[in-house]
Design a protein that fits this description.
The protein is an alpha+beta fold. Helix content is about 10%, strand content about 25%. It has three helices and eight strands. Strands 1, 2, 3, 4, 5, 6, 7 and 8 form an eight-stranded antiparallel sheet that branches. Strand 3 and strand 4 form a beta hairpin. The mean pLDDT is about 95. It binds a DNA duplex through strand 3, strand 4 and helix 3.
DNA sequence: CAGTGGATGCTCT
DNA sequence: GAGCATCCACTGT
């Protein structure tokens, strides 16, 4: 039995380990921005040796946050239209991160509906661009620590079955199964989580 | 349900 | 100037 307990806010030191170790621990955690957010149901690993990673070619102005300390946010603009949020998670210098790809909305759903302009809960945070719009994440969040306002990351409250899937939406190293999904969740970014 | 293409702007070569 | 860690509308079954 899992007794009910108060949620534990994860401090930035929690993120000081490899992305591969951290990803299974963060799936099922709750991400809040100004009190709005939900349970993380999909994550993608990007490490520096990965040709698909922004950090692959070394530090640049855009990816500076990825080379900064763990436990901070890396936010970038995608296709000139959307924002995407990462958790910087390896020790400084290794430049790996976890892309938050989908949430199950639990906190501030009305606010998300207002920002997204749709009411179907499955369409609020089912993609990296969508969840940033729902949580109002943008350029000003790049480089901010994840254990301070407006961010809050609450530890997973119970165990969760994890499915590893083929990555999607990228052109290089697509074959790596570095996309972690909460098994059977209806809030994933694409399909039922198979790949 | 699967596949396609346009929008849109910033980063890096 | 090319390419992009996306989303949505639209097409054809």
């Amino acid at each position: 039995m899992t007794p009910a307990r108060d949620p534990v806010s994860l401090q930035r030191g929690f993120f000081e380990r490899s992305a591969h170790q951290l990803a299974p621990q963060l799936l099922g955690a709750t991400l809040l921005v100004d009190g709005v957010g939900g349970v993380i149901v999909e994550l993608e690993i990007y490490e520096q040796s990965d040709p698909a990673s922004h950090s692959y070619g070394g530090p640049t102005k855009r990816n500076a946050s990825m080379f900064g300390p763990a436990g901070h946010a890396y936010v970038y603009r995608s296709y000139g239209v959307h924002w995407c949020l990462n958790f910087v998670c390896a020790p400084s210098g290794e430049a790996s991160a976890l892309l938050v790809r989908a949430l199950e909305p639990t906190h501030g759903v009305e606010k998300m509906i207002e920002r997204r302009g749709v009411s179907d809960p499955r369409k609020l945070c089912s993609g990296p661009g969508k969840l940033c719009q729902a949580l109002a994440v943008g350029a000003k969040h790049d480089g901010l620590p994840l254990d301070e306002t407006p961010f809050q990351v609450l530890a997973r409250a119970r165990e969760l079955e994890i499915v590893r899937c083929r990555r999607i939406g990228i052109t290089r190293a697509r074959e790596k199964h570095w996309r972690l999904c909460a098994s059977g969740s209806p809030y994933l970014s694409r399909g039922p989580g198979r790949g």
